[in-house]
Amino acid sequence: MHYISPVLWQFLEKWLGNSPLFPPEGSAMSVHVDVFFLFLLLVEIVGVTIVTLMVVTFTILYRKERHPVATQIEGSTLLEATWTLIPLAVFLVCFAWGALLYFRIYDPPTNAMNIYIVGKQWMWKAEHPGGQHEIDALHIPIDRPVQLTMISQDVFHSFSIPAFRIKREVIPGRYSTVWFEATKPGVYHLFCTQYCGTDHSAMVGWVYAMKPEDYRAWTQGSTSGSSLAQNGERLFASLGCHSCHTGQESARGPDLAGLYGSKVRLADGTYVTANDAYLRRSILTPGAQVVAGHSAIMPTYQGQVSEEGVIDLVQFIKSLNSNYRIKQGATAPELEPGQAGTPGTVPAEPAAQAQPGNRAGSAHTTPGTVK
Ligand code: HEC
Ligand SMILES: [Cu+2]
Question: Is this model's pTM higher than 0.70 or not?
Answer without folding.
Answer: yes
